């Protein structure tokens, strides 16, 4: 019988109710033990809709439940640090939505709290768990496209008309770099297998959106002269693309950050030909839940424990570069 991880869901945001909770129910290793909100009425409604046994009207009650092994935290970014640390202190493993914190200092505190408590912490970049990413990494390692030279990543959408959106709250960790820029930034670190050295970013800061970065584009320098060229935005036409360029070819991934089943294919250009790769389709949220549980039960995690800190170092450097309009070197730790 497959060992089961008992989840508590800390908040009823759309990402939780629409994606993560259904995925945990579909997973091989997880069951949802409880859901909590700041009011019992909301959590009870979600529990009834999704068939969850226990609903709580506070996060503290959820953390006190001895039948909850792990918590998923989809709260606004500025609340991540507090509740990750409190969950760790309660002995719960933690899957926290991206970006994990407002800055690398907070992220380091969270990682250390989880290490001290002996619990597993992961940042919820679900795309990294889709089989297509592993297949792309295998192609890169095989040498089919030669030595890596550059990665180009884009992730934009237009939601600027909804000025009440929490993504437009500067103090809460709003802005395009935090919301969608983190995807190509984390992907480049993963695919290059290295940490960046410097970043130069330009952004549109909108006074009508609490002066968050509504659009950003930039260059991230990696060792050996290779680079990520990226753009991200919440005030531009919807699009996603990831291109990996090598000396002998390139890989092009449409919808790199939201692919599931029928849209999981990608294209490999090499030897003067193009190959349509039929990647294994999957729900990345289900893969994320099963990989998280595997790490809790003793398997090697998909990424290292310090990965969230390194992600935040890059994000905060990009934002600082955009605000100062300067090329900035990254501090590593």
TrEMBL record:
**Entry's InterPro entries?**
Gfo/Idh/MocA-like_OxRdtase_N, Gfo/Idh/MocA_domain, GFO_IDH_MocA-like_dom, NAD(P)-bd_dom_sf
Q: Where is the Gfo/Idh/MocA-like oxidoreductase N-terminal domain?
A: 5-123
Q: Which UniProt keywords apply?
A: Oxidoreductase
Tell me one GO molecular function of this protein.
Answer: nucleotide binding
Domain GFO/IDH/MocA-like oxidoreductase, first and last residues per copy: 134-252
From what superkingdom does this record's organism come? Bacteria
Family, according to the entry, reads as follows: Belongs to the Gfo/Idh/MocA family.
- Its recorded name reads Oxidoreductase
According to its UniProt entry, this protein's organism is Paenibacillus graminis
């Amino acid at each position: 019988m497959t060992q089961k991880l008992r989840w508590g869901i800390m908040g009823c945001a759309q990402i939780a109710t629409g994606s993560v909770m259904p995925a945990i129910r579909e997973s091989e290793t997880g069951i949802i033990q409880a859901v909590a909100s700041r009011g019992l009425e909301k959590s009870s409604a979600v529990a009834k809709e999704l068939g969850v046994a226990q609903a709580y009207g506070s996060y503290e009650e959820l953390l006190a439940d001895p039948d909850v092994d792990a918590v998923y935290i989809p709260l606004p970014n500025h609340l991540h640090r507090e509740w990750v640390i409190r969950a760790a202190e309660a002995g719960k493993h933690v899957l926290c939505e991206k970006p994990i914190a407002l800055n690398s200092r907070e992220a380091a505190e969270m990682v250390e709290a989880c290490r001290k408590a002996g619990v597993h912490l992961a940042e919820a970049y679900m795309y990294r768990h889709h089989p297509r990413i592993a297949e792309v990494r295998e192609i890169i390692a095989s040498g089919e496209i030669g030595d890596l030279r550059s990665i180009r990543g884009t992730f934009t959408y237009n939601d600027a008309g909804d000025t009440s959106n929490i993504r437009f709250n500067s103090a809460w960790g709003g802005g395009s770099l935090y919301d969608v820029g983190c995807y190509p930034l984390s992907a480049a670190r993963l695919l290059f297998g290295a940490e960046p050295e410097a970043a130069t970013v330009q952004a549109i800061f909108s006074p009508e959106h609490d002066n968050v970065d509504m659009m950003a584009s930039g260059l991230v320098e990696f060792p050996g002269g290779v680079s990520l060229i990226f753009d991200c935005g919440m005030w531009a036409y919807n699009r996603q693309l990831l291109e990996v360029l090598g000396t002998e070819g390139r890989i092009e991934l449409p919808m790199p950050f939201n692919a599931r089943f029928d849209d999981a294919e990608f294209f490999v250009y090499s030897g003067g030909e193009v190959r349509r790769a039929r990647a294994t389709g999957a729900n990345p949220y289900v893969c994320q839940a099963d990989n998280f549980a595997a790490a809790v039960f003793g398997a090697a995690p998909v990424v290292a424990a310090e990965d969230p800190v390194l992600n935040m170092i890059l994000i905060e450097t990009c934002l600082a570069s955009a605000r100062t309009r300067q090329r900035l070197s990254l501090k590593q730790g």
